Amino acid sequence: MSDVLQTMLKIGGLWKSFAGFVATRDVSFELKAGEIHAVIGPNGAGKTTFFNLITGHLRPDKGSVAFEGRDLVGLPPQRIVRLGIARSFQRINIYPRLSVFENVQVALIAHEGQQWNLFRPGRSLHREGTRELLELVGLAAEATETAGELSYGKQKQLELAIALASQPRLLLLDEPTAGMSPQETSETIASVRDIVKARGLTLLFTEHDMSVVFGIAERISVLHHGEMIASGAPDAVRNDPEVKRVYLGNNAHG
Amino acid sequence: MTLTMFTLNAFYGLALAMNMFIIASGLNLIFGVLRVINFAHGMFYMFGAYIIFTVTKTWGAPFLVGVLASAAGLAVIALAIERLLLKNLYDKEHLMQLLFTFAIVLLMSDAAKMIWGTDQYSVGYPPGLGGAINLGFVLLPQYQLFLCVVGPLIAIAMWLLVDRTRWGRIVRAATQDREMLSALGVNVPMVYAAVFTMGSALAGIGGALAAPRVALVPGMDATIINECFIIVIIGGLGNLWGSFLGALAFGFVVQFGTVLAPNWQDVLPYLLMLAVLIVRPWGLLGRPEAGR
Amino acid sequence: MPQRNQLIASAALVVLLALLPLAGSRYAVDLTTEVLIYALFALSLNVLIGFTGNVSFGHAAYFAIGGYTCAILLTTYRWPLAISLPAAVVLAGLVAAVVGYFCVRLTQIYFAMLTLAFAMLVWGVAFKWKEVTGGDDGFTGINLPAMLTNHVSYFYFTLAVVTVAIAALWVICHSAFGLTLVAVRENNVRTGFIGVDTRRMRWAAFTVAGSFGGLAGALFGMYHRGMYIENAFWTESAQVLIMVLLGGMYSFVGPILGAATLHLLQVFTNQYTTYWPTVLGLILLVIVMVLPDGLIGLVSRVKARWGKT
Amino acid sequence: MKISAIIVAAGALGAGTAFAQQPVKIGGMYPLTGGGAVYGVPAMAGHQLAIEELNAKGGILGRKIESIERDDKLNPSAASSTMKELITKDKVDIVLGGLSSAVGLAMSEVSKQEKVVYIATIPKTIQMTTDKLHKYVFRTASNTDFEGDTMSLLAGRYKLSKLCNLQLDYAYGNDLEAGIVKTLGKNAPNAKIVLTLKPKLGATDFNPFIPQVMAAGCDGVLSGLWGPHFVSWVKQAKPLGFFDKIKWISGGEIASHEIAGELKGDFPDNVISNTYELWYHAQDPSHKEFQARLAKKLNTQETPQWALLGYVGVMYAAAAMEKAKSTEADKVSAALEGLTIKTPVGPLTIDPKSHQANMGQFWGPMVKKPDRAYRMMDPVEYIQPK
User: Which residue has better confidence, D101 or C84?
Assistant: First the structure.
């Protein structure tokens, strides 16, 4: 739908502080449609805050967030989702007491705006779409299980399915492989990339695992103490002296 | 309103606030740490009043002994309730705890009827506090002055205990993260038991201190529980000084409101809560609870 | 299919109830009428509690608004029942919508206390607006259509209205709307991020709950031929809350069971002892300690919670 | 014709003898739990005493009396349900009791629908015997008009001029105020109400009101503050010397021993009030006898006044059934109209038009006695409405 070279998300001069602690400091950032973009940085660098500011969970003190030319600042999460931005969470954020199937089903209902339908039985809706999404993320076999009882990795997969149910153009994944085994990680990453490419999505994600980051990211941005210190192609970032000093240097050898 | 009347009303508002604070502070403490909505708190208050009646009037003990007996009596009752029953419920739905405290209300109301019958009782003022002090332009009842002293004393004592002692730090930590505290080797169940006991003893003291001013009758627990909740809520849940402020707001609004708009007196406390919650949804000194 | 079984069981229950007057016990008929009304009242509250996860301490307000409105329209204005009853439901729903607008901005205990505050205002209005409501003397002598003055006909009327209302609530609770409400209850934040305005959902649930609560109140007032300010008092809100918790809030039928159990317990223990609070208290204790899911947990321990059919 | 008459008579006789085995069922409802139990429990004791006495003498119409007693929970809807239960399940012949106005009116509504006689033994609201009067409701308690009339009479007698009217803000208070205002001009032409205050029902804190009364410069208060309200008022007003200058004329039975015996030395001076019954007042032999039996039942000499109300209600029910020679509601209702019976406080008559008994009350000032720890009424005057 959008041109590959077009700017999808444009962030300018973003500030956010909590009781004096500056979590996001004058961050400017651009995301091209269709790219796979990683945001990295040590713990506490402000990655999650950055995501929260984009998706409306937090409101920036200053700055602008434009999605496809539309200002997002001040919009509540549900409006932003409807514009085409879906996200997953670093800490598992699903419906633990609903079945796996219902977790996705309810997201599809919401996407179709059917939450205001007082008459159609909820469980009869989008059965096909739900099944497809579960298959896509590899949870078809667990459809009837209670979501909270799934393994950690599978709950992460479920998060992905819920996010995809909103049919986003931009997908934000906050540490999609956190807590996974190396085996699960590589599987997840492969499947995420396939899905993103197959559906023509734009992906913005944060990640700890540098092999994952450099494995799939087309562009990488580095946050440090709330500041965006570098942004560019993987090689350029890898060789950026500032990045080496504050981040890669510490982590890669520590 | 003349100066005399204004002074009197302000003073009475303060006295009411302090009496309510003493009762509500215990409820606030229990809610803040245990997250239990204790509907039985009003019943504890009533028991406090009845116990001081028995101790001072039937047994002839001095007033102060009566107050201590009320505190001790409620501490024992509360400890028994917590250790035998309530401790098993912390992991369950909050609403199950609510149902539990309601069951306690029912059981204790009948227990009170069996022990004290249905007659109405009254407790005398402690000697030396039954009169009034003449300031020239206004008479101030001594007992209410006494309450105005006791209330802040209790507030300061609680503040010292919670803010300035190791035990207090543990209690405050328990309000934040129970699992973490447990991992750090703190005996959390004992902290919970102690907090429930202490909060309930405060209800007992509140009842004992209210007793000389009011008639003791079955059902005296009913409105007090709502008023305590209002004070705790408008102050900000779990916040000691919030409850103090909430009690002051309650005292002055009820006193002046009743004088100026007697037609609204039945719903004044609720109007106050409405106004506060619409303007400051988390109470005067409360903070929004992060996320969920 | 279990759903079909449920439908058959429900239909059988309604038929069985419809046969009750043939047994000839006037008392049983009256008691069942009361239970039906309380069941609807408890179910209406559970739209908020069980399905949305919002505990209201002031649900009696809508019960009272429904009851008074119907009573006043029938008696003071001599409107026909066919208009008075819907008007009562609409007014209860409207007031719930206005109150809900403010309440859903808050959550948890703050939400509960705000509902309580508004409900006490409703009580205050019923108390002070003596010319219209009769104040604390109550509004007695409600003018019923002649065909409903007989206890059996009123029972059938109640049975019909309550059955339809419960069916409607069932449809609503199991609709896409209902499922989304459960999502709001289970995870408010996540539900925002799938594109749902959770506050508006809760607002809608509040309004639905208030409307059906109003219907229950209207039936109640006509049954007693009187509405009293006590019906709006917070103790009444607490009572219906207990019915819901007792029955089991995560199940659709739980509150019906809770309403029947609590009401019948109160009636029967009062027949044997003036220490009925002790009896009731002990029973509640047992339920709390042993049956955390309410009575419905006892009935269907094997069944998983809402979510698995 | 003749034969059929005989058959009918025989049938009636047969039915009568079969019926004789059946007890007369009397339903009694008072608040027995919560806030109303203070009054309901003693009233129920009087109710039971009357039934015990009647049964000892062979019951009513030669049939034993079965007493069915229930808690009205001080809640009109609950009372309405319970009364229906008494009528439809227990098949009671008559229902007695009630305390609050709303419960009384709710019970009256059931009595009207179900066509069962209800005798209100405590509720005083005037509506019950005026606007909402019907064939089956009767009252053997006093009412707010009687009480108001006597209070204004006393205001005149004590030559009070500036009055403060102090009533609780609910049905009883409002009705009592109306009763006072109606008769004040006639009974106390020199008196004027300069201030009217209405604390809420159930108030425990009277500080918003006490200074206002003191500042208004009244020489008398006409009060309807009953029970715990009065006690709380006293506890809060006395330290200010409130009762030193102000004469307190009160309805609401605060001169009863339940309050005087509890407040003892704290009971203020200058109080003139009423009570239904006085255990220390030797009036006539029947009263002494009643008092002795009640004292035995309750195991105290200082018996509460409320028992009398429960007692008189039952006695009226029994007398009416005896007079009607039936327990049928229509006949009992007809028999109650104009019925005069002897009670421990003297003869009472139910007015056939208003269904209201001329139940009087003891009135008088509460005074210190050298040999008693508590105050007593002296002189006592039994004032009965005309």
Answer: C84
Mutate to test the interface with C, among B46, B98, B239, B254 (most CBs of C within 10 A): B98
A133: left (phi over 0), alpha (psi -120 to 50) or beta: alpha
Quick one: C250 exposed, middle or buried, by C-beta within 10 A (0-12, 13-18, 19+)? buried
C63 min Cα distance to partner chain D (Å): 13
- The superfamily in CATH containing domain A1-84+170-254 is P-loop containing nucleotide triphosphate hydrolases (3.40.50.300)
- Give the Cα separation of C20 and B210 in Å (integer): 53
Q: What is the pLDDT of residues C26-77, one digit of tens each?
A: 999 999 999 999 999 999 999 999 999 999 999 999 999 999 999 999 999 9
Give the residue among C53, B95, C253 at the shortest CA–CA distance from A95.
C53
The distance of C176 to chain B (nearest Cα, Å) reads 24
Number of domains in chain C: 1
Asked if the structure places residue C184 within a domain, the reply is yes
Question: Which residue range is the domain that position C150 belongs to?
Answer: 4-234
Contact D75, C220 (CB under 8 A): no
Q: DSSP of B216-264, one letter per residue?
A: B-TTTHHHHHHHHHHHHHHH-TT-HHHHHHHHHHHHHHHHHHHHH-GGG
Chains that touch D (3 or more CB pairs under 8 A): B, C
Q: Tell me the three state secondary structure of residue D342.
A: strand
Residues B182-197: tens digit of each pLDDT:
777 788 888 899 999 9
C-alpha pair distances (Å), C207 with each of A13, B22, C91, C175? 42, 38, 11, 16
Closest CA to B51 of B195, B227, B194, B201: B201
Least Cα distance to D116 among D99, D92, D133, D100 occurs for: D92
CA–CA distance, B17 with D236 (Å, rounded to integer)? 16
Q: What six digits make up the tokens of D176?
A: 């009592």
Nearest residue to B254 (alpha-carbon basis) of B271, B234, B268: B268
The percent helix, strand, coil of chain A (3-state, each to 5) is 40, 25, 30
Instruction: Kindly list the structural domains of chain D, giving each domain's residue range(s) and its CATH number in brackets, ordered by start.
Output: 11-142+286-355 (3.40.50.2300), 145-275+362-383 (3.40.50.2300)
Contact D70 C271 (CB under 8 A): yes
Burial track C50-73 (b if 16+ CB lie within 10 A, e otherwise): bbbbbbbbbbbbbbbbbbbbbbbb
Asked if B92's CB is within 8 angstroms of C128's CB, the reply is no
Give the residue on B whose Cα is nearest the Cα of D306: B119
Domains of chain B by residue range: 23-218
pTM for the complete prediction?
A: 0.92
Helices and strands per DSSP (H, E), number in chain B: 11, 2
CB atoms within 10 A of CB B165: 11
Chains C, D: CB contacts under 8 A, how many?
78
ipTM field: 0.91
- C277, part of any domain: no
